[in-house]
Amino acid sequence: MDNGEVIPGLNEGWTLAGAKPGEWIAGFMMLIIGSEVIFTDKITRAMPGLLMLWVGTTFGLAALRKLYPDEERGIRNHVMVLCGFPPPGIPTPSALQPVWSGFPIKRLPESKLFTKLGLERLFDGSLKSETKESDFE
Fold this sequence. Notes:
Blueprint: H1 21-37, H2 43-66, H3 72-83, H4 113-116, H5 120-130
Helix pairs in contact: 1-2
């Protein structure tokens, strides 16, 4: 395939009915938890509900995974943003950092290590020569 043609699903792992093994295992764990917590009556009466819980969880997770172009990583990043953590390896999303400014700061706070070490004096001359005072107003 040297002509640039893309084979869809070439790097995709093994699936059963479109769900990965981890999703089937998560569905089975929901079956076990459901048998102990939700369906406490006879197992023969609860089995259709347990099987629906198993298959529903499995295909629900598969459908959720397919919503994101980068699949598991997209789900992880979305959940981390919902919990308030910046996802690793990408810039902080706008939900966590709503203010993006290209304007220069007039002065850094005194609590910053850069200011405590006095490093602004090193760059003071070079910054003033490149920018005008009217740019900061």
